[in-house]
């Protein structure tokens, strides 16, 4: 789990991202991001019941993505709010495949340092 300063949790922030954020798509998930004028980035992972009816499966995907974020926080540019909405294709991927796809999506959208 991410530490509290790195979590996006207020409904107001979700609404702001929905209306003003940029969307980026890749096969396993959709990213929405917006600058937040802060010294760190905040994240939220959304896994719909359309992905799986089982909470165990949804929570496992959410935990895997949050762990990928936690391990790569130093590589991610600060000052962004990011929502990761998981797609159906993420179900069949391993953690390593999810990590490589997530980091490549961030790099493609200029959200990684270096």
From TrEMBL:
Keywords for the protein's UniProt record, in alphabetical order: Endonuclease, Hydrolase, Nuclease, RNA-binding, tRNA processing
Subunit structure of this chain's protein: Consists of a catalytic RNA component (M1 or rnpB) and a protein subunit.
Enzyme class, spelled out: hydrolase
Keyword Flavoprotein set for record: no
Entry EC number(s): 3.1.26.5
Transmembrane segments: none
Alphabetized NCBIfam families for the sequence: rnpA
Record's catalysed reaction(s): Endonucleolytic cleavage of RNA, removing 5'-extranucleotides from tRNA precursor
GO biological process: tRNA 5'-leader removal
MF annotations from Gene Ontology: 3'-tRNA processing endoribonuclease activity; ribonuclease P activity; tRNA binding
Cellular component, GO annotation: ribonuclease P complex
Family designation: Belongs to the RnpA family.
Name recorded for this polypeptide: Ribonuclease P protein component
Purpose of the protein: RNaseP catalyzes the removal of the 5'-leader sequence from pre-tRNA to produce the mature 5'-terminus. It can also cleave other RNA substrates such as 4.5S RNA. The protein component plays an auxiliary but essential role in vivo by binding to the 5'-leader sequence and broadening the substrate specificity of the ribozyme.
